[in-house]
């Protein structure tokens, strides 16, 4: 089941709690309202982590449906299109919503991106290891208490606990301990991917992004081949195609409207561009979904 809408809305933490501090922590047993805004297809300006200790939550992420069950966790980056398909029945667990700048006000800009699970969206729930089942309640209850009491130093405490929680979550997801290597080349590619997400609809040339990063286009291509296995141009095209998929699946927009939104000069070029990747036209792709 996929819910369609006229537009994929972007939700900020202001829509959930106007008095937020860049992070919100909810106990699902006490308050389910934090998920009410997620029923229609949406993007978010914040990261989302849902840890369920009882009950079931059904979700759609991009074009995938999945069920989050007892002692499972899922995490969503802001760019994913997410909709909640579940009924409001009894559930228990935790929801953490946080903006990138909340984390980076204490840690440097790219530290968050070294948690590889936040960068590479996993479309299936992750089973929570026994050691996390034992350790997370204390961490999450402390975070929830600090969030509710809003003490003047709560932000610093919450940043520290968030870092601990993400670290143990990373350990749970990456059982082999594999993380993105922290080096200058990886930092450049991460910055490039950030820029693509911000400007892909209007800027398609690798040279534009190379200039923004103060490196040559050839060097940018070498970095992308080395770190991602594809060229800079292909990374840009993959992002455009991902957005085309989302608009075709989650909205009622016609092909002409989608083509315009993605910055194509004409519809026929968009159809050719899309068909080269998927082997079918955008309209045929939509019907199959």
UniProtKB/TrEMBL annotation:
InterPro entries noted in UniProt: Homeodomain-like_sf (IPR009057), HTH_AraC (IPR018060), Tscrpt_reg_AraC-type_HTH (IPR020449)
Record's keyword terms, sorted: DNA-binding, Transcription, Transcription regulation
Residue ranges occupied by any HTH araC/xylS-type domain in the UniProt entry: 190-288
Gene3D superfamilies to which the protein is assigned, alphabetical: Homeodomain-like
Protein name per Swiss-Prot or TrEMBL: Helix-turn-helix domain-containing protein
Organism (species): Sphingobacterium kitahiroshimense
């Amino acid at each position: 089941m996929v819910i369609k809408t006229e537009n994929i809305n972007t939700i900020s933490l202001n829509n959930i709690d106007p008095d937020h501090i860049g992070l919100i922590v909810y106990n699902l047993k006490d308050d389910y309202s934090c998920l009410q805004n997620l029923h229609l297809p949406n993007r978010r300006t914040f990261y989302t982590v849902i840890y369920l200790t009882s009950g079931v939550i059904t979700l759609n992420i991009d074009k995938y449906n999945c069920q989050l069950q007892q002692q499972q966790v899922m995490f969503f980056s802001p760019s994913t299109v997410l909709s909640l398909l579940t009924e409001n029945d009894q559930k228990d667990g935790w929801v953490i919503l946080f903006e990138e700048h909340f984390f980076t006000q204490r840690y440097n800009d790219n530290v968050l991106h070294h948690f590889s699970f936040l960068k590479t969206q996993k479309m299936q729930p992750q089973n929570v290891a026994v050691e996390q089942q034992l350790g997370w309640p204390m961490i999450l209850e402390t975070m929830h208490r600090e969030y509710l009491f809003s003490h003047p130093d709560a932000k610093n405490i919450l940043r520290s606990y968030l870092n601990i929680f993400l670290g143990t979550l990373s350990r749970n997801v990456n059982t082999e301990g594999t993380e993105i290597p922290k080096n200058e080349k990886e930092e450049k590619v991460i910055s490039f991917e950030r820029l693509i997400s911000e400007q892909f609809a209007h800027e398609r040339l690798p040279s534009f992004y190379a200039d923004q990063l103060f490196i040559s286009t050839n060097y940018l291509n070498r970095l992308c081949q080395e770190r991602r296995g594809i060229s800079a141009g292909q990374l840009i095209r993959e992002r455009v195609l991902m957005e085309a998929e989302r608009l075709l699946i989650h909205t009622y927009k016609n092909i002409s409207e989608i083509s315009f939104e993605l910055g194509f000069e004409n519809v026929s070029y968009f159809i050719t561009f899309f068909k080269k990747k998927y082997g079918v036209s955008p309209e045929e792709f939509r019907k199959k979904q």
